[in-house]
Amino acid sequence: MSFERLTSRQQQLYPIVSALVFSADQPLSNERLVALLKSKDGFNKTTTKDLMAVVDVLKSRLEDSGIQLVATSEGYRVEVLKDYLDWVYLLFEQNPPKLSRALLETLAIMAHKQPITRAEVESIRGVAVSTQIMNQLKHHGWVKSAGTKQVPGHPTLWVTTDKLVQDLGLTSKDALIEKLDRLVNDFLSDKQTQHVSQPIH
Fold it and tell me: Model-level pTM?
């Protein structure tokens, strides 16, 4: 759909929705966007249909740019296309994080078995999960505590986060599991490689 085919009300909504999704630091759901729009006088009749029409136009207008509007299970987010991530890293003087085999294996097990304790991950891997790996995962915001397991010692239960899904440019936790499995298999198939660089968004 083109901008010209939007209703006058939807055309009014277009710059507002654009500003919201570009400014948000986390995905915005349909419900959240409609609620924000309806909170202002003059926009309280906004419907999900209006929003969807605006989103379609915004997606279309971004097609020839280096960014895209992505619909995830959590809502809409704007992300840089993978082809242009190296340029963005230059802007922020940032390098993609180095993901070790141990870290990838730990993440893959957590994604499959969550919620899971550190000891359970170690039992599956057959080796200890170092404090350095756990600190890395928490530093990136890729895992979080989900309470404690009701066994002696009450160990912490860990789950992967939506930020991990976003940073890997994915749209669901199912896709996350597939991606991590593939990365681990790629790693295992290249025994000469000590580290693999995975671009983040």
Answer: 0.57
